[in-house]
Design goal:
18 helices, CPAse_ATP-bd, 5 domains, about 25% helix, 8-stranded antiparallel barrel, about 675 residues, D-amino Acid Aminotransferase, Chain A, domain 1, globular
Length: about 675
C-alpha cells in the first residue's frame, strides 16, 4: 500500500488541528473541511487547502458522507482521517471510503459495526474470554420486556444506548418506579444523538473506576497496548478529567487488562488506534463495557507518559506500515492528567454556555489542544468542549498541583466555563490521594460547586462603572489622578453578578477608593483599592492595584450591559451587570417566574404541558437539546400554564419566550 500523500480531515476545530499537527511533519499535504459557521476557524487557516461543505449553522454538514467523499475526490486526497466524533465510528462512512478507493485512517467497516452495536460488542467480547457485566440486549424489546429484564437483573440498573457513547443515552435507574421515565429520556437523547433509540440494560456497578486500555494494531496481525487511562472523574456519565497511569492499577493488573484488550483486538481483526473500556470494582475485578473504534479525546495523557505520537502511528498504519513497537518497548514515564475545558456553567447544573471569546491565553507551561482565538464565538451548534489542558510531571501529586496551577494561569473571558471547577478537582484532597470512583464528583459536589466570593472583583467593577457613568469623556484613567475629585463617584450603584443583586458605593479619597459592598442578604464589606494603574493590553484593560493592603492584578473587559473582571491566578472571571439606571420593577425577581425563557440556543425536544394545566414546583415544562445534551426546564412555583409558544423541533434563541405562566394564589 502506498504512503498517504494527501489527507482530508473530516472534523473541525481542535480535533482537526491535532491531526494537522501530526500530518505536516510527515510530509503529508492536508485538506480541511468546514461549514460556513467555521469559515474563519483555525483549522481552516492551518490546512494546506480548505473546502466549504455546508451552510451555517449546521452540525449536519460534518455528517454528510456523500459530501465528504465528494470533497476528498475533488481535492485529490487519497486518505481521510475522521478525527473523533462525527463520522469516526460510522460503518457506512468506512464503507463509502472503501468503495471510493480512499484510505480511511481507522479500522474496517466490519470492526466498526461490530463494536458500534453494544449488544454485538458484548457477545464478541464474551466469546473472546473477556469478563462482562450481566445485562439484557435483545433487539426490538418493548418497555414491558425491558422492565421485566431490569427486575431479573436487579436494581440498580444502567440504561445504555446501543448505538452510542460519550454518556449520551445513558441513565442510572435505582427503582422500578422511575424506570419508565428514565427509559423515555434515555431513548429520546439517543435518538437525537445517534438517530437510533434502541437501548440495552446492564447491572449497575456503584462507584467503580472507569479504566480504558489504549491499543494499536497494524494490518499484519501485530498489536500492542499502551497501558491504561483512568477516566473515573465524570459528570453526567461524561469524562471531564483523565489521567495515565491509573492510581488504582498496578503492574500485574495492567498486564491482565492489557491482555484482555488485545484478545478483543484480535477477535475483531482490528486495525489502527482504539480503546477498550472496562469498569473496575473495589475488588479489582474488571468488566468489559465497550470499545471505541477511534482515537479518544484523552489520548494526550497516553502520549505524555509513553512519548508515542498516536496520530502519526495511525497514519503509518493506514499507509500499510508494520507496527515496529513491541510490548516490551512500551515504557511509562511520570504521570499525566488532562482537564477538559468546557463552555458550561457548573453552578447551573453544567448548562452549556455560548458567547464571544473576549480574552484567551492558555498556560504557557502545559500542553493545551484548542481552537480558540480572541474575536471568535462559541456557538450552540457543536460540543461544549473547548480545550484540553494536559500536564505531565514526575509524580501524580506533582501532576495534580501542576494542573491546578495551569488552570489558574489560563485566561478565558466572555462566557461561563468550568476552569475553576477543574482547578478545584485537581486541588481536592481525595482526588490527590487517588482513592475515588465514578461517584467522586457527586460525593463532593458541595465543596466543588460552592459559590466563590468576588468582593475584590466587584469593587474593581464598581470603580470602572462609576467612572463610566460620571466621565465627561471616553478616556479611561490610567491612575488614581485620572479621577477628578469633582466627579460624583459616591453615587450608589446597583449591580448584579452571578444572579445576585449587589449595592455598592464608591468614594474617592486622596490616595485610594473605598467601595462599600452590600449584598441582597444585607451582608456588608468594604474594599479599599490603592495605587491604581490601568494599562491597555491585548487581553483587555489590565488593572494593577492594592486590595486591602495586598497587591493584585485584574483584567477588565467592558461588555454589553456591564463588565467582565478576572483576577490574576483565578480561573473564573465574573460578569458584573450595571442595573443602576434600570427601573426597580425591571430587576425585581421573586421565586415565581411568569415568563419561561430559553436559557440557551437549542432545539425543543419535548413539550410536556398544555394551556390550562396547573403545574407544581419542579414540574418539567419543556426539554431543550443543546451541545448534544438534553436540558429540562421546570416551573419554580405553583402556577397555571397560560400560553405554550413552542413546539417540538423548533430552534430556540437565547432568552426566547417558551411558556407563559400565571401564579396560583
Amino acid at each position: 500500500m502506498p504512503r498517504i500523500k494527501k489527507l482530508l480531515v473530516a472534523n473541525r476545530n481542535e480535533i482537526a488541528r491535532r491531526i494537522l499537527r501530526a500530518a505536516k511533519p510527515m510530509g503529508i499535504a492536508t485538506v480541511a473541511v468546514y461549514s460556513e459557521a467555521d469559515a474563519k476557524a483555525l483549522h481552516v487557516q492551518e490546512a494546506d487547502e480548505a473546502y466549504c461543505i455546508g451552510p451555517a449553522p449546521s452540525l449536519e454538514s460534518y455528517l454528510r458522507i456523500d459530501t465528504l467523499i465528494e470533497t476528498a475526490l475533488k481535492s485529490g486526497a487519497d486518505a481521510i482521517h475522521p478525527g473523533y466524533g462525527f463520522v469516526s465510528e460510522s460503518p457506512a462512512f468506512a464503507q463509502a471510503c472503501a468503495d471510493a478507493g480512499i484510505t480511511l485512517v481507522g479500522p474496517t467497516p466490519q470492526a466498526i459495526a461490530d463494536m458500534a452495536d453494544k449488544a454485538r460488542a458484548k457477545e464478541i467480547a464474551q466469546q473472546a474470554g473477556l469478563p462482562c457485566i450481566p445485562g439484557f440486549s435483545e433487539a426490538d424489546s418493548t418497555v414491558t420486556d425491558l422492565m421485566a429484564a431490569a427486575q431479573r437483573i436487579g436494581y440498580p440498573v444502567m440504561i445504555k444506548a446501543l448505538a452510542g457513547g460519550g454518556g449520551r443515552g445513558m441513565r442510572l435507574v435505582n427503582s422500578e418506579s422511575e424506570f419508565a421515565a428514565q427509559l423515555h429520556s434515555a431513548q429520546l437523547e439517543a435518538k437525537n444523538a445517534f438517530n437510533d433509540d434502541r437501548v440495552m440494560l446492564e447491572k449497575a456497578i456503584i462507584n467503580p473506576r472507569h479504566i480504558e486500555i489504549q491499543v494499536l494494531a497494524d494490518m499484519h496481525g501485530h498489536a500492542v497496548h499502551l497501558g491504561e487511562r483512568d477516566c473515573s472523574v465524570q459528570r453526567r456519565h461524561q469524562k471531564i478529567v483523565e489521567e495515565a497511569p491509573s492510581p488504582a492499577v498496578n503492574t500485574e493488573l495492567r498486564a491482565r487488562m492489557g491482555e484482555a484488550a488485545l484478545k478483543l483486538v484480535h477477535a475483531t481483526n482490528y486495525v489502527g488506534a482504539g480503546t477498550v473500556e472496562f469498569l473496575l470494582d473495589s475488588n479489582c475485578d474488571f468488566y468489559f463495557i465497550e470499545m471505541n473504534t477511534r482515537l479518544q479525546v484523552e489520548h494526550g495523557v497516553t502520549e505524555a507518559i509513553t512519548g508515542i505520537d498516536l496520530v502519526q502511528w495511525q497514519l503509518r498504519i493506514a499507509s500499510g506500515e508494520p507496527l515496529t513497537l513491541q510490548q516490551s518497548d512500551i515504557n511509562f514515564t511520570g504521570h499525566a492528567i488532562q482537564g477538559r475545558l468546557c463552555a458550561e456553567d457548573p453552578a447551573r447544573d453544567f448548562m452549556p454556555q455560548t458567547g464571544p471569546v473576549l480574552a484567551w491565553k492558555p498556560d504557557l507551561h502545559s500542553r493545551c489542544d484548542h481552537a480558540l482565538e480572541v474575536g471568535g464565538e462559541v456557538s450552540p451548534w457543536y460540543d461544549s468542549l473547548l480545550a484540553k489542558v494536559i500536564v505531565h510531571a514526575e509524580s501524580r501529586l506533582a501532576a495534580c498541583e501542576k494542573l491546578a496551577d495551569a488552570l489558574n494561569r489560563t485566561t478565558l473571558v466572555g462566557f461561563e466555563h468550568n476552569a475553576l471547577y477543574l482547578q478545584r478537582i485537581a486541588s481536592h484532597a481525595v482526588f490527590q490521594r487517588g482513592n475515588f470512583g465514578t461517584g467522586f464528583l457527586a460525593a463532593h459536589a458541595d465543596e466543588l460547586l460552592k459559590p466563590q466570593t468576588f468582593d475584590a472583583e466587584h469593587a474593581v467593577a464598581a470603580v470602572f462603572l462609576a467612572f463610566e457613568q460620571n466621565a465627561t469623556n471616553s478616556a479611561w484613567p490610567s491612575s488614581l489622578s485620572g479621577f477628578s475629585s469633582t466627579r460624583a463617584l459616591a453615587r450608589p450603584l446597583k449591580l448584579k453578578a452571578s444572579g445576585a443583586a449587589i449595592n455598592l458605593s464608591v468614594t474617592k479619597n486622596a490616595g485610594s477608593f473605598q467601595v462599600q459592598v452590600r449584598t441582597a442578604g444585607q451582608e456588608e464589606s468594604e474594599v479599599q483599592l490603592e495605587h491604581w494603574q490601568a494599562l491597555a493590553t491585548e487581553q483587555g484593560l489590565q488593572v494593577n492595584t492594592v486590595v486591602n493592603g495586598l497587591p493584585s492584578r485584574f483584567i477588565v473587559l467592558p461588555y454589553i450591559g456591564g463588565v467582565w473582571v478576572k483576577r490574576q491566578l483565578n480561573p473564573q472571571a465574573v460578569f458584573v451587570e450595571d442595573e443602576t439606571l434600570r427601573s426597580a420593577s425591571a430587576t425585581a425577581e421573586g421565586v415565581f417566574q411568569a415568563q419561561i425563557k430559553s436559557p440557551m440556543n437549542g432545539k425543543i425536544t419535548q413539550v410536556l404541558v398544555q394551556v390550562g394545566q396547573v403545574v407544581e414546583p419542579g414540574t418539567v415544562l419543556v426539554c431543550l437539546e443543546a451541545m448534544k445534551m438534553e436540558h429540562r426546564i421546570a416551573a419554580k412555583a405553583r402556577s397555571t400554564v397560560e400560553q405554550v409558544l413552542v413546539q417540538v423541533g423548533e430552534q430556540m434563541k437565547l432568552k426566547q419566550l417558551m411558556v407563559q405562566l400565571k401564579e396560583v394564589e
